[in-house]
Amino acid sequence: MDLGEVRVPLRVVEIERYPLPSDLAISVAREEGADFILAPRIGSKQNSEFRTLSMNHADLSGRISLRSPHAVLEMEGRSAGSPVENAFSVWLQEHKRSAVVDLTSPKSAQLIFCLLTWPKLLKAPTRMISDVAGVSLGLVPRTVGYLEDQGLLRDRTWVDSGRLTVAQAWLASYRNKLGPSLHLTFMEGADDGRFKIEDATLGGGSAIPGLIQSAVSTVYVPDLTAKFVRVNRLRKGDRPTVELRRLFWRTPREEFWDFHWQAPGIATAPPLLVYADLIASKDPREREVAHVFLQEEPRLHWLSQSAI
Question: Taking the model in full, what pTM does it have?
Answer without folding.
Answer: 0.70
